[in-house]
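Hey, weird one. I pasted the ABC-type polar-amino-acid transporter sequence into the form twice and got a warning about non-standard characters only the second time. First submission, copied straight from the form history:
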Amino acid sequence: MTGSPGTPLVVLDHVDKWFGDLHVLQDINLSIARGEVVVVIGPSGSGKSTLCRTINRLETIDKGTITLDGEPLPAEGKALASHRAEVGMVFQSFNLFAHKTILENVTLGPTKVRGMDKGEADTKARALLERVGVANQADKYPAQLSGGQQQRVAIARALAMEPKVMLFDEPTSALDPEMIKEVLDVMVDLAEGGMTMVVVTHEMGFARTAANRVVFMAEGQIVEENTPEAFFTDPQSSRAQDFLGKIL
Ligand code: ADP
Ligand code: MG
């Protein structure tokens, strides 16, 4: 089964999660095909970040199953570490290692987790930095870069692990407006290159351009999902209509 083109890459099947009394994910069913770009939107507190975090098991689930490439998520140990290496994650706060250079930030995972030799990791990292447009920053430290540059480095760092899927949790929300586009452009390029992506974002332009599907969440549930075109022009639920009324 693993790796066969017909199977979905990520499947959440009847997933429930509670934080104490809060039923934060309620019977979530979501199947993501290879190469699909899914944009997740919804009000603050609806469970979008938690949903992302369950996919690389930064959060455990209480019911249901999650599979990646046909394999259930391992609970712990080496198997979990190798699962995590297959799921790239980019957060709102760039989370680069402050005391490592840009190049080192990108080579660390491949050398430590994948056991790649340094020369090969360097070559690959420079190519990725080139791809995200920050090749000339390789020897600097994160604090010397703009927010938009740091976020592009964070994307390069995730890509260096050759993940099967990339998760983005509000990747542009902490950026000054003039830097948002340079990050979204990199994400659009990735999407066009066939990367499987789950993107939590309020950037409706990105959703319209790059998403195959929009998933609308509210209060822990997937309320509605559709193509961006159908979702934005004709949202079905009152909650989605309400939400779009506020942000568009
Ligand atoms: P979103 O990303 O859509 O804003 P989150 O997934 O961050 O939503 O949070 C969903 C709900 O779960 C919120 O009410 C939030 O306060 C709560 N929550 C998130 N993380 C935790 C946690 N670690 N412990 C308890 N409650 C949490
Ligand atoms: Mg969130």
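That's the output from the first submission. The warning seems to come from a hidden character in my clipboard, not from the data itself. DSSP finds nine helices and ten strands in the chain.
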